[in-house]
Amino acid sequence: MVTVAQGRTIGVSKAAKSVCEMTFMELCQEARSSPDYAAIGARFNSIIIRGVPQMSMKRRDWLRRFILLIDTLYYMHINVVIEAEVSLEDLFEMEESGSGAFDAATRTKGGVDIHMLEDLQGMQDRTNDEHKEEDALPAHFDEEFAYSRCVSRLHEMQTEEYQNECVQRSKKEE
User: Fold this and answer.
1) SS3 83
2) What is the Cα–Cα distance from 139 to 162, expressed in whole angstroms?
């Protein structure tokens, strides 16, 4: 059990010393927030996440929680091991197809760099009254961008440099 805000607790499937194993269902299918993930990260140096499915916009809530989980653990320099049904690049399934689809491998949408699209979204937000609704970026753009960032972080979390930072963090806490 991990105690989180306001005396709530989160059950942990398996734990030994500073390592825990939890399922995607426990972490992302149930209602969770950043403080919940931070409490888990504060208690454990390594987290094994089992049963991560391929996600889509059909379950946007799961996708958002997964991204929030990875963001939180990334900032805390927690070692994360994921057991997933598909590769990291394929964890997010876009329903649309064709040249306008989001490509996680190249981080592009319709051949345009996703970071450029983010800049355009920011400009659009500032001048939203001047744009027609049909000119707006798709509603799922935020998830696509956040997912792209999440995949990038997951790849970074596999690097030797990140792993060394995790070890240094855990040594400081001993």
Assistant:
1) strand
2) 33
CA separation for the pair 140, 143 (Å, rounded): 5
Quick: pLDDT tens for 43-98.
Answer: 999 999 999 999 888 888 899 999 999 999 999 999 999 999 998 888 888 665 44
Asked whether the CA dihedral 11, 15, 18, 19 is positive or negative, the reply is: negative
Is residue 70 classed exposed, middle or buried when 0-12, 13-18 and 19+ CB atoms within 10 A define those classes? buried
Alpha carbon 124 to chain centroid distance?
25
Question: What token pair was written down for 17?
Answer: 């010393």
Three-state secondary-structure class, residue 142: helix
**What residues contact residue 100 under an 8 Å CB cut-off, 6+ apart?**
109, 110
CA 25 to chain centre: 15
The answer to whether 151 and 89 have CB atoms below 8 angstroms apart is: yes
Interatomic CA distance for residues 87 and 101, integer angstroms: 18
* Helical ranges in the chain per DSSP H: 24, 34-43, 60-75, 114-126, 141-157, 160-173
pTM of the model: 0.73
| Both structure tokens of 8 | 């709530």
Nearest to 87 by CA among 153, 145, 140, 155: 155
Q: Where are the domains of the chain?
A: 2-173
